[in-house]
TrEMBL record:
The chain crosses the membrane at residues 6-23, 236-255. InterPro entries: MUL1-like. It is a multi-pass membrane protein. Its main location: membrane. Keywords: Membrane, Metal-binding, Transferase, Transmembrane, Transmembrane helix, Ubl conjugation pathway, Zinc, Zinc-finger. This is RING-type E3 ubiquitin transferase. Its EC number is 2.3.2.27. GO terms for cellular component: membrane. It comes from Spinactinospora alkalitolerans. It is found in: Membrane. One of its GO terms (molecular function) is zinc ion binding. It catalyses: S-ubiquitinyl-[E2 ubiquitin-conjugating enzyme]-L-cysteine + [acceptor protein]-L-lysine = [E2 ubiquitin-conjugating enzyme]-L-cysteine + N(6)-ubiquitinyl-[acceptor protein]-L-lysine. It is an enzyme of class 2 (transferase).
Amino acid sequence: MLVIGIALLIGAAILAPLAFLALRRWLAQRAVAEVRPNALAAWAGRPVSLSGLAAPGPEGGIESRLAGTDCVWHGHEVLRHYWLWRTREDGGERERVRNCDSIADHGSADLFGIVGAAGAERRRGGAVLVDPDDAEVDGVHMCLQRVVGRPQRGVPAPADDLLNRVKGRISGIFRGETIEFEYREWVLRPGDPIVVHGRMELRDGRPVVTAPPDGRLRIECGAPPESQPQNQRANALLLSGGTLASACVGLLLTLSGV
């Protein structure tokens, strides 16, 4: 009994550091999965991927420029559709083909937040902020798509109400004969599920997800929140339970064998 008890105590001593590391790793991953601002502050300078719900930033919600939709982020684009004449490669004849160019493209740069899917962090410590400046955004909701014909001389253009709201200046090479202009706008609404891939920074003590030094911030909308890594949780619990069981049984056998 004494030998078995001592062997179990030695095994518990070996498992204890492994169990501690596994438990610490699992708790860190859990903090990321639940988007806890206080825990994520320790990730400053490291790449992160956060899953949660979009939330208003420090200044509150904003409105999209073209449609006036309530949102936390918005972006718009103006496309110019036109006819272009080109020479066919087979017979050398000229043909008219339809083409389009982007002549305006804008995405808002206002900070917004991301909170855990359960919304608990909205009540405890606020949201982790996201800096969307020049971000790559995928899957966001299109709130406006309007096609407006080519302006006619002496006739008020129906696109005037949108043209004045376009951010920045209209630019590009105006080739061929204009057919129409197409206005598109996308928004990220409060409560939309998102996944944000970037780099964690601290600004005035608050964690902010920004673009990595060698790339762009990536925001995916509509993706389901990532599940808690079950294998890490199982490993942590298994090692902790094994360590505790070995220590208890080893201690009892050692005491009974003395």
